Amino acid sequence: MKVILKKDMQNLGASGEVVDVKPGYARNYLLPHGFAYEASAENIERLEEEQRRAEEVAKRDYLEARRRASQIEDLTLVFKAKAGEEGKLFGSVTNADVAARLNSDGALDFEVDKRHVENDPLKELGEHSVTIRLHSDVVLELPVVIEPED
């Protein structure tokens, strides 16, 4: 019996895949628990349409992330912070600080979430590079300069 999997099943297949299973396994386990649905011609058409829509959404998300990245690429963030004589900060510049500074400048037409900033807290004066991931395929490095507070 052919069924379409609704979710990834170990040793069986991935979500959206059409697999051939024994009729009893499908009737008694997969279908009642909502793990799959019957692979009729109508359901296969529906699956293909869902996959087409998902591809369009993924492409649109990627293009939007590229557009957003182009706004951030040329920026350099400068932070003023209290530091000791050896250049160690009293505190740190965190992902939330970087995201807040990007959002407060007004140069962007979108909000950067602190979860998009992938870095450990910066704890020293000087120039640093911060990774920003706007999409799984769109990653950029943002220069951050930390200067001593006067």
How would you explain this protein's 3D organization?
This protein has about 150 residues and is α+β, with helices and mostly antiparallel strands. The chain has a four-stranded mixed beta sheet with strand order 4-9-8-6. Strands 2-1-3 form a three-stranded antiparallel beta sheet, sandwiched between helices. Strands 5-7 form a two-stranded antiparallel sheet. The termini are far apart.
Q: Estimate percent helicity.
A: 25-40%
Name the poorly predicted regions. none
What's the average pLDDT?
91
Percent range for β-strand residues: 25-35%
Q: Radius of gyration from the CA trace? A: 24 Å
Largest sheet: 4 strands, mixed
User: Can you identify the CATH class of the largest domain?
Assistant: Alpha Beta
CATH topology of the largest domain: Ribosomal Protein L9, domain 2
DSSP helical segment count? 3
What's the end-to-end separation, in Å?
A: 75 Å
Morphology = elongated
CATH architecture of the largest domain: Roll
Task: List key phrases describing it.
single chain; 150 residues; alpha+beta; Ribosomal Protein L9, domain 1; Ribosomal Protein L9, domain 2; 2 domains; four-stranded mixed β-sheet; three-stranded antiparallel β-sheet; 3 helices; elongated
